[in-house]
Design a protein that fits this description.
Number of helices: 9
Structural class: alpha+beta
Helix content: 25-40%
Strand order of the largest sheet: 1-3-2
Number of strands: 8
Strand content: 5-15%
Shape: elongated
Distance between the termini: 36 Å
């Protein structure tokens, strides 16, 4: 499975190609506006509102800018039906792409499934470990096509906790927790896997999904990401 490196989400070095290409007045106005939005890009309706250019002029100019390879259309996971454009020298921000868990605007369920299974396997060997330790172990195995950040693994671990596949506990600093600082959040298998017990478990009320969800800023009542469609929120309500 092919995935882009996390660094690809960062802003690229500005391109000077636009300066050497002849542009019509409308094309220049639109290009300057689009480029000014950097990695957030801009929706076509906002372009029309900010430039006051007629619809047909905007449509024609956007096509010309694409042919000249100065702009590109990108997917906005929050509004997939809207045409969103960005200057070619930028890569979409995480707010647009959804971050590491999305590919071309679609949730990469296969990648998430692989990471979940890998985290459980690694944790079954380590018995108890922090997100940092699990992340290091996974990257050393080379099981994943690209290196995973600690933040990514932490998000997967939180999902596994909500799935009741593992437990989130705090280190007591003694016994099997001796190598982990006292009070540090760590993870272990659940009783159903034969690895339960140990440090104090963090209750569900203290771990409401919304409080740790990396997509909380994108969650809206009627959006693509919403409480109505959130399986983890539903599970928490049933607790």
């Amino acid at each position: 499975m092919s995935r882009s490196q996390g660094s690809s989400l960062k802003r690229k070095r500005p391109d000077t190609n636009a300066a050497s290409q002849p542009l019509l007045d409308a094309e220049r106005v639109l290009y300057d506006l689009i480029q000014s939005k950097e990695d957030m890009g801009i929706w076509t309706r906002d372009m029309k509102r900010e430039t006051n250019l007629p619809d047909n002029v905007v449509t024609k100019s956007l096509k010309a800018l694409q042919v000249k390879k100065l702009i590109k259309e990108v997917v906005n996971i929050q509004s997939k039906g809207r045409k969103h454009y960005m200057a070619v020298e930028f890569e979409p921000s995480k707010e647009l792409t959804g971050g590491a868990w999305y590919v071309e605007g679609n949730l990469d369920t296969e990648y998430i499934k692989i990471l979940k299974e890998t985290c459980v396997k690694v944790l079954s060997k380590l018995k108890v470990a922090t997100a940092e330790r699990i992340s290091e172990s996974i990257n050393k195995t080379g099981l994943c096509a690209t290196e995973c950040s600690t933040q990514q693994i932490a998000e997967i671990l939180r999902a596994l906790v909500l799935d009741n596949e593992i437990m989130e506990v705090r280190s007591s600093g003694s016994g099997e927790f001796s190598s982990i600082p006292t009070g540090a959040v760590c993870y272990r298998g659940t009783n159903k896997g034969g690895l339960g017990g140990g440090g104090p478990k963090i209750g569900a009320m203290a771990s409401i999904p919304c409080g740790v969800c990396p997509r909380i800023t994108q969650c809206t009542p009627d959006g693509i990401i919403s409480p109505k469609s959130c399986a983890y929120y539903a599970k928490w309500l049933d607790f």
